[in-house]
Design brief:
alpha/beta, two-stranded parallel ribbon, 7 helices, binds zinc ion
Length: about 260
C-alpha cells in the first residue's frame, strides 16, 4: 500500500499470461494450457464463484457487491488470449482483463530473453473487446516504472492509454505495471492519466485501487493449488481489514470513495 491511501478490499485477482497448448520451452513459466484454464474456471464455478474483469470487480466492491466474484487478468496481450482463453472464458460465462503493451501491437514480447510470443494487433484487440473482455494498458514498451522519470511515466502510462482508447474507441479504465514494478510516482502517474484502477504482481496484503495485488497462477497449478491461493488471499484480506479497523486514523476503502 502506498502513501497511506485507502485500502480497497477485493476478492482474489488471478494473474495469467499466455494461454496456449504449445509445448515449446517456457523458461519463465508464463504459459498455462487451455485445458488447465478450463479446469480452473470449472473449479471456480463449483465453488459458486464467477470470474470477471478487474474493473468490474473494483466497481462491484465499491457497491459492496463483490461477494462470489474473482478477478481474472491476463498480462501482455498475446494472440493466444483471443485464440485459446476467450473460448474457455465464454464457455464458463466468465470474462477477464487482458493487458496490452500498446506500443508493440502486432509485434512480439521483445522485452523478454525467452521464447517469442505474438502480441495482438489492433483488430484482434477490438475482437477481444467485442467478445465482452476488458482491455487494459500494460504501458507502451513493457517498461519497468519504479524510478522512471516523469517524461517516461507520462509516455508509458498516459500515451499507452490514448493509443488503446484510439484503437478501441472506448474508455480504458485499467492499468497493469509491468514486472509489478511501481513506486509512488508511478501510482501518481496512473491517477493523473485518468485510470480507474491498476494492479501489481504478488498476493501480499491488499493495496489501494491503483496498487491492487494479484495471485500469480503457475502453469502447473492444480485445482488444489488454486484453492490454496484463494484461501490464502481471504486470510490475508481479513487480517488486513481487521488491522485497518483497529487503527482509526487509517481510512478503509469501501466505506468512502
Ligand atoms: Zn507483462
Amino acid at each position: 500500500m502506498t502513501g497511506g491511501r485507502s485500502r480497497l478490499p477485493l476478492p482474489p485477482v488471478l494473474m495469467y499470461h499466455s494461454i496456449s497448448p504449445s509445448a515449446e520451452p517456457d523458461p519463465h513459466a508464463l504459459r498455462v494450457h487451455p485445458a488447465r484454464l478450463d479446469r480452473h474456471l470449472g473449479l471456480l464455478r463449483r465453488l459458486g464463484l464467477r470470474g470477471v474483469p478487474l474493473t468490474e470487480l473494483v466497481r462491484a466492491a465499491e457497491r459492496g457487491a463483490a461477494a462470489g466474484l474473482v478477478g481474472l487478468t491476463f498480462d501482455d496481450g498475446y494472440t493466444d488470449f483471443l485464440d485459446h482463453a476467450v473460448p474457455v472464458l465464454r464457455r464458463h460465462g466468465m470474462a477477464g482483463t487482458v493487458y496490452a503493451v500498446a506500443g508493440l501491437l502486432g509485434g512480439t514480447n521483445d522485452w523478454d530473453t525467452g521464447p517469442r510470443f505474438r502480441i495482438m494487433d489492433a483488430g484482434q484487440l477490438r475482437a477481444v473487446a467485442a467478445a465482452g473482455q476488458e482491455v487494459g494498458s500494460h504501458t507502451l514498451t513493457h517498461a519497468r516504472l519504479a524510478g522512471a522519470d516523469p517524461a517516461v511515466l507520462a509516455a508509458e502510462v498516459g500515451e499507452s492509454r490514448r493509443v488503446l482508447e484510439d484503437v478501441l474507441q472506448a474508455e480504458v479504465p485499467g492499468f497493469c505495471y509491468p514486472y509489478g514494478s511501481y513506486d509512488d510516482a508511478a501510482a501518481d502517474a496512473v491517477r493523473a492519466a485518468g485510470y480507474d484502477n491498476a494492479c501489481v504482481t504478488g498476493d501480499y496484503e491488499p493495496g489501494d485501487r491503483v496498487t491492487l495485488p494479484r495471485c500469480y497462477v503457475s502453469p502447473r497449478d492444480t485445482r488444489a493449488h488454486l484453492v490454496a491461493r484463494l484461501v490464502r488471499h481471504s486470510v490475508r484480506l481479513r487480517r488486513a481489514v481487521a488491522r485497518d479497523a483497529a487503527r482509526p486514523a487509517a481510512p478503509v476503502a469501501g466505506a468512502g470513495r
